[in-house]
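Writing this down once: the sequence line spells out the residues, with the fold written below as integer tokens. I am pasting one below:
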Amino acid sequence: MNDLALLLTPEGRVLLDEVRDTDPARELAVATRLRREHPAELVSAALGQARLRQRAVVKFGAQDAGRMFFTPNGVEQSTRASVAAYRARRLAESGVTSVADLCCGIGGDAIALARAGIRVLAVDRDPAAAAAARANAEVLGLAGLIEVREADVTEVDTAGYDAVFVDPARRGGRGRIFDPEAYSPPLSWAVSAARRAPRTAALKIAPGIPHEAVPEDAEAEWISDGGDVKEAVLWFGTEPGAVRATLLPGPRTLLSRGLPDPEVRPPGRYLYEPDGAVIRAHLVAEVAEELDGGLLDATIAYVTADELRPTPYATAYEITDHLPFNVKKLKALLREREVGNLTVKKRGSAVEPEELRRKVKPQGPHAATVFLTRVAGAPAMLIGHPA
């Protein structure tokens, strides 16, 4: 918080611009030079903020990250801007005009909500996070829509807002927290707050949450961005019991139809690797039906089919070989085909991709993908390439 106060002074802002693109390898030399003209505390704060801004580019983009203010936890835990923007659009399209953003952190979600035209009360009990959220609202020209309050979210009255958004802290002193009741605040409190919202509510949770922990009156949505699963959201006041996987960019959304597990069948010409959000949402059966396919193994989320059918919900590979797991045979096959660019994917195998690569020593001008998996319970290797 003291660092931020220093950086918001005219001298601090000028210094931030000066160190914006500092190479981490040159930090010591830059710091030594700058300390001849500026207080050491300010130089350290500016260089630290420059590092955080560089890390934040992947989530917020270069333009916003280069102007915003971050804390170390804020960079780590804030929502990716594309995901926050999608969720804000959902709320705006449902008619929401005001949101109480509880556990707002450095304000990433509040920014997306304000840009969607929604008035926001952003609350966090961490003074540094609240100060960063306030500074970010101002620097991005959104202070008219975002009120930042430093407070315990459990003591905030949200009655005057259409919707509630809660992003409980899921990290502690020992790393990630997997028990929802160990979130801060606990998931049970967040659910109670969501149920009190006049119109709707959204709770951001870890994508690994067990399906049995999802309340019956909630809609559960798993979201991926560029193929990487980012989060799960519990929605209240939307479609109770609905389960969906949403893929960004797009968005493209797959809804559960309550299908039974697909049948296991022999490998076909094509293997489909479902998007991680589809797998987390337990919607592999919906994808298999769309592809007229089945599973290679009852416990593994690889779909096999005889035809190539475009789908946004899975990546297709054409399979050229199906072998029992055998490193020597794989090495001989790759040498024969002069494969030097080898992609190793695994699901249901204890073999590590890098370990396999060291053993087969791929060499040559051609590329291939090998899947280490099980076929009807037996360890197997499927070799192919993107379709």
